[in-house]
Write a structure and sequence with these properties.
The chain has about 170 residues and is mainly α. Helix 1 runs antiparallel to helix 2. The chain is about 65% helix and about 0% strand.
Length: about 170
């Protein structure tokens, strides 16, 4: 646990957590056939940004690394907010975006193929949870994971210990 409270340890843990979360989303999409909606795709953006930032923070000197960890915390907090908004739209607490729809695969080759595809293609609805685990949708789990990663990054940015020990300069 002490390693997570170092700048380098927290940066790597948040980057790894973000990469694992996006990896799981890609498995659901490409491996299990769940088509993401517009909000699902938007929720991935903070993770895409946090992975390289975490690697930068892990290699940077202590003070700049703490600033990068602070930025990572803000990005993941934004991601948690997106997840809460999406999950709330799924539960009907508020309306989802009116233009929500996902897409995957190649588009139709010509107008005839397009018209045929309209007969059986259904746009993805941001207000319908595609899958739930323990009663929580993927958007809800995204909010939980993003909030946890934000908390870890923020704690490390504010309170991180040196990874070299208390009497050594540097990180």
């Amino acid at each position: 646990m002490n390693r997570l409270l170092t700048v380098r340890g927290a940066a790597l843990a948040v980057a790894l957590g973000a990469a694992a979360t996006v990896g799981a989303a890609l498995v659901f999409e490409h491996g299990l056939g769940y088509v993401p909606c517009k909000l699902c795709l938007t929720e991935r953006v903070p993770y895409y940004l946090v992975v390289p930032l975490g690697l930068i923070a892990a290699l940077a000197p202590r003070r700049p690394a703490r600033l990068v960890l602070g930025l990572m915390a803000v990005l993941m907090l934004y991601g948690a907010g997106l997840g809460v908004y999406h999950a709330g739209a799924e539960w009907g607490f508020w309306p989802g975006p009116s233009d929500c729809g996902g897409g995957s695969g190649a588009g139709p080759a010509d107008v005839g193929d397009f018209l045929k595809s309209l007969e059986h293609v259904r746009p993805v609805d941001c207000t319908a949870a595609a899958w739930r685990f323990l009663g929580i949708s993927l958007a809800g789990w995204n909010a939980v994971i993003a909030a946890a990663l934000a908390a870890l990054a923020a704690a490390a940015a504010l309170f991180a210990q040196s990874s070299r020990g208390p009497h050594q300069p540097g990180r």
